[in-house]
Specification:
alpha+beta, Aminopeptidase, 30% strand
Length: 159
């Protein structure tokens, strides 16, 4: 896909019919070791936390916003189809997720990532993972990289 093409990207909340596409998108990242895998059952159970980016009627990206506490949410499972990378779809997904956090009046958004520069360009700052015990106890305890985590924590404060 050439970046010069005029494409309209629409972000929306995910629906159960998106589960298979979400599963395949996330699986491609999980196979590279850069995202935790999600089962179809988990995706269906957590579908209300997911958003998708569409071009036409094709889902080309996804992300999720998981509440970790009263004042903290995490962006996770953020990715897009290989052929649509570089078209700022990730930025649109992050903007959509940030807006959802604002609507929920949650002041802090975090992520664990390998794409640090992407998050820095989207207004996040690098922080120590240890400031997020909510995350550590929710997900990290089940991660194969738990004791050798090489992801970087980023945080955005909403005003």
């Amino acid at each position: 896909m050439e970046a010069t093409e005029q494409l309209t990207v629409v972000c929306r909340k995910a629906v159960p019919e998106d589960v298979e596409t979400l599963y395949e998108l996330i699986k491609s990242y999980a196979e590279q070791g850069i995202m935790l895998p999600r089962t179809r059952e988990t995706l269906l159970r957590q579908i209300d936390t997911f958003v998708v980016a569409e071009i036409g009627d094709k889902v080309v990206g996804c992300g999720s916003l998981l509440k970790l506490g009263q004042d903290l949410v995490e962006i996770r499972s953020l990715g897009m189809s290989q052929e649509y990378r570089g078209l700022k779809i990730g930025n649109k997904l992050v903007d959509f997720l940030v807006e959802q956090a604002r609507e929920q009046q949650i002041p802090k958004i975090m992520a664990l990532t390998y794409a640090v520069n992407f998050f820095l360009r989207n207004g996040f700052t690098v922080v120590e993972k240890e400031i997020f015990p909510e995350k550590v106890w929710k997900d990290c305890v089940n991660c194969p990289k738990q004791h050798a985590c090489d992801e970087i924590a980023v945080l955005k404060m909403l005003s």
